[in-house]
Every structure is written in C-alpha cells, then in structure tokens.
C-alpha cells in the first residue's frame, strides 16, 4: 500500500484538495477531523486536556477557541497540548492505515496539516504539498470567522515556511489557478500511484 502525505500551510486549500482525492476514490485520513473527534463530547482528549488547561471544556467538549487562546502564544503550553493530543491522533491514524491495508486499498492519503513539523512524513512513501501565493493565502485566512492578523501570524510562526515544504515535497499542487487545475494535478498523481502499484505487483 502506497501512502501519500498531503500537507500545506493554513489557507493554501489543503482540505479542498483532500476532497479531490476522495472524489477519485482514494481513502483519505483527515487529521483535523480526528482531532475534532478527540475534542468532542466523550472524546479521548477531553479529560486530559481539561486537566492540563482547566476551564476549556463546555458541555463535556473542548471549546477549541478557548483552548487556542490558552496555547497559541505560549510555547510550553503548546508542547503540553501536543504531548496529549499527538499520541491519541497517532492511534487514530494507525487505525486508519491498518484498516485500509486490511481492506486491500492500494493507495491512501494522510491529510495532515503539520506533516513535516510533527514528523508524520516518516510514515509516507511520498509527500504532496498544496500551495498558493502568499497574498492569496492571507486573503483566504483573514476572511475566516474569528481570524485576525495577530492570530494568522502566530499560526504561521508554528508552520514550516511554504518554500521549504515545496522544496522537500515529491509533488506540488497549486490552488492559485482554481480547483479545476488542482483537480488535474490530483488526477495525474492518482494515475501515477496506480502505475506504481501495478509495477510493484508485476
């Protein structure tokens, strides 16, 4: 089974690009969705996160905005949070990979925002980075509810620069020209992975 890591900085269009892989029938692990599930009522992260950051739980679930305010500009707090959440998310990712392998999937995608930063690329055979010009990225991010310039800057400070990600990637998918162009890139990658699977099985 070939594993493609999909990553990209905030506002680059990574989640939409992950959807394009799903449209092609490729199983996709969504790291953001996995964390949402961990933070939801009954989620495995609720109790330990509340213990580490008292007051961030509302109605049995983690209030993500309250948690973000507590950790965003505090490196020690962020490390504590990552120490709780990353192992739990890692378990969810391993379950996805094991299930996909058991079901005979020839090719899967791991959609992980901090793929390089958190070391998740070690599980991947290839990495695709989703990119867009900085001005497009900024416009997209600042149009989101609850987002401002300071928050955007803080988030960027935790992410590997886009240029470095592109330099390290096996594939670069630009969303600057619209998502039909990105879809063409995705279809080309899926076709290439299909050929690689056939070669490996021949």
From TrEMBL:
One of its GO terms (biological process) is coenzyme A biosynthetic process. The gene is coaE. This is Dephospho-CoA kinase. The keyword Transferase applies. It catalyses: 3'-dephospho-CoA + ATP = ADP + CoA + H(+). ATP binds at residues 11-16. It is found in: Cytoplasm. The keyword Amino-acid biosynthesis does not apply. CDD domains: DPCK. Keywords: ATP-binding, Coenzyme A biosynthesis, Cytoplasm, Kinase, Nucleotide-binding, Transferase. One of its GO terms (molecular function) is ATP binding. NCBIfam families: dephospho-CoA kinase (TIGR00152). It comes from the Bacteria. Its main location: cytoplasm. Its EC number is 2.7.1.24. Pathway: Cofactor biosynthesis; coenzyme A biosynthesis; CoA from (R)-pantothenate: step 5/5. InterPro entries: Depp_CoAkinase, P-loop_NTPase. One of its GO terms (cellular component) is cytoplasm. Catalyzes the phosphorylation of the 3'-hydroxyl group of dephosphocoenzyme A to form coenzyme A. Belongs to the CoaE family. The lineage of its organism: Bacteria, Pseudomonadati, Pseudomonadota, Alphaproteobacteria, Hyphomonadales.
């Amino acid at each position: 089974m070939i594993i493609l890591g999909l990553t990209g900085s905030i506002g680059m269009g990574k989640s939409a690009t992950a959807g394009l892989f799903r449209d092609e029938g490729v199983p996709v692990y969504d790291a953001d969705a996995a964390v949402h599930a961990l933070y939801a009522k009954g989620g495995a992260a609720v109790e330990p996160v509340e213990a580490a950051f008292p007051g961030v739980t509302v109605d049995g679930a983690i209030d993500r905005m309250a948690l973000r305010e507590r950790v965003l500009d505090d490196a020690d707090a962020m490390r504590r949070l990552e120490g709780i959440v990353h192992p739990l998310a890692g378990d969810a990712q391993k379950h996805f990979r094991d299930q996909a392998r058991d079901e005979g999937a020839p090719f899967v995608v791991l959609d992980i925002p901090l793929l390089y930063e958190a070391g998740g690329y070690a599980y991947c055979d290839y990495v695709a980075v989703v990119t867009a010009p900085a001005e497009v990225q900024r416009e997209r991010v600042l149009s989101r509810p609850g987002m401002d310039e300071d928050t955007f800057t803080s988030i960027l400070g935790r992410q590997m620069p886009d240029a470095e990600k592109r330099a390290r990637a096996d594939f670069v998918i630009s969303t600057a020209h619209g998502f039909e162009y990105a879809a063409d890139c995705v279809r080309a990658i899926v076709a290439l992975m299909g050929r690689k699977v056939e070669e490996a099985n021949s």
